[in-house]
Every structure is written in C-alpha cells, then in structure tokens.
Amino acid sequence: MNSALHPRLKLLESQLSVPTLTPIFDDKLTAQRLELWIKRDDLLHPVISGNKWRKLKFILNHALYSGADSIVSMGGAYSNHLHALAFAGKCLGLKTIAYVRGEQPQKFNPTLIDLQNWGMELRFVTRSDYRQLRAFKHHDSLPDLKPGQYWLAEGGASNLALQGVAEILAEIERPFDVLVTACGTGTTLAGLIAAAPAHLQVVGIAALKNAGYLSDEVNRLLPNNSSLAGWQILLNYHFGGFAKTTPALEQFIRYFSAEHGVPLEPIYTGKMLFAVFDLLNKGFFMPGQRIVVLHTGGLQGVRH
Length: 304
Ligand SMILES: *Cc1c(COP(=O)(O)O)cnc(C)c1O
Fold this sequence. Notes:
By secondary structure, the chain is an alpha/beta fold. Helices cover 37% and strands 18% of the residues. The longest helix is centred in the first third of the chain and has 16 residues, at 50-65. The mean pLDDT is 95. Bound molecules: pyridoxal-5'-phosphate. Residues 50-52, 80-81, 155, 182-189, 268-269, 296-298 line the site of pyridoxal-5'-phosphate (PLP).
C-alpha cells in the first residue's frame, strides 16, 4: 500500500494546523485529582474540521493514486462528512457526487448551500434507497460506477480511514491514561483503539440510540492483533437519538462553551462532554487519571 502522500494532498495538508490540547480546569476534576485536556481537532482547518479530515486523508490519497477523477459518497443534509469531502474535493481537483438522505428541500440549509457552491453534485434519495446504499462498503462495489469514480462508503469506514485517525495519537505529546471520543459509525473509535498503546483506556460515547451493534462494527474494522487497548462504548448518552437534544444537554453546552471557551455542538461533542462530567460524578474515573477527550469538530452543522 502506498502511504506516501500525493503532491496535491500534501499541498492541502500544508494548510492545516496541528491542533493543540486545551486544558480544562474545574473544581470537580481537582477534587478527584483528575486532569482533563481537549484535543482540538475542531481547529484543524477552517472548513475541513475534525475527524472527517482524519478519515478522508488516506482514502483521498488512495483515490488520487488509483487515478480517480471523482468521489461518490453519501450522507445526511447536515453531514459533516459531505461538507469536508466537498471542500477537499474542490481543493484537490476531484469532482464530488453525493447521495443525500431524504427529499430535496425547497430551501437549502447552510450545509447544502456550501456543498452546492463547492461544486458537489447532489442526488437526493429516499430513506429506503439511502439505507440500501449502506450495503456497499468497498470503493469499487457501488453498482453503476463510471470509470474514474471512487465510492466512499458511509462514515468513511475503511482501513484507510483508521490510518489517518492513528495520526491523532501521535500528536498528543503528553502522557495520558484515558481517551474519550464520540461515536457515529465507530470508525474513529476503531482507529484510536488500533493505534493506542495497550495500557490506554479508550471510551466511545454513542450518539445514536440502540447502538448495541457498534461494538461489532468496531471489531470488524479492527486489525487482528492482540496488543489492543482496552475499550468500551457507552450507549446511554444519546439523549433520545441521533441529532436529538434535551434542555439539559443544551444548558450544559451553553455552560461549557462559556466557562471553558470551547464550542460544542449537540450531535456529538456536546453529548460526549456531558457524558464525561456525568461519569466523573459517578466515580467512573480513577483518582489521578489523565483524560484526553477528542473534539471531533462538527460545528458547521449547527449554523443558523
Ligand atoms: C462524524 C462525526 C463523529 C462520528 O465519527 P465516526 O467515525 O462515524 O464514529 C463524531 N463527531 C463529529 C463531530 C462528527 O462529525
């Protein structure tokens, strides 16, 4: 596998910054001698934020080296994935095509407007057609792909995505014991588990309801080797389901953003940090533990 970066991708990557760790100070943390840092992948790039860049990087590299001229993918009308892909595609000179879940709305939301402005071709599909697209996992497995078209499955779930996620760990320059991330498809979590040293405890917070299937998904993505970090997925912080919220969650997000100066959104990162503080109150962490939570970005999805 060629993991040297394609020149066009190298140029794009040179515009990204290596996100810092923001320390969080809170009496509750101090009382338990816990340390908490946020790995700010929301600050990677003004547009291509968070885990979506991490997951796309080596997939786009593979596509470029395979001679692809277009990327075909799928997502919802607020999709962070499509947003990152459309912009990256424009920078790299790749055409992008997206199957978007649901009917074409009369008035486009800010995400769809960006996608359109960046030249992504949008194909609105019914929810049941959308579900059927999930069956195609491999980059050449979508029926009716034209020559030069590269299929990118939902959530970017592939080994190439894990390779990009692994780079997050290499950037964290201080020792730590626990790593927390939000989970949608579980691809980011799988990438962190695969790259984490065996002593690290990796915790995923599911953003979707009834996400019991997620651990099978993560296992499917993980390479077969035995030195994996200990990991678990917590299923009870979905607040009613994907993109659902509650007044308590909204209040927490307002409080946290104002108090610590770190913006959160209610779909992934707000739920994850709510979970971290709830777990703290429940004695989940061991005194003295150093916790890093991954800010996976996603703030474009909550523009009004
Ligand atoms: C997509 C996304 C996730 C979920 O990532 P998976 O790899 O699908 O689990 C988490 N946080 C944010 C902000 C996202 O946009």
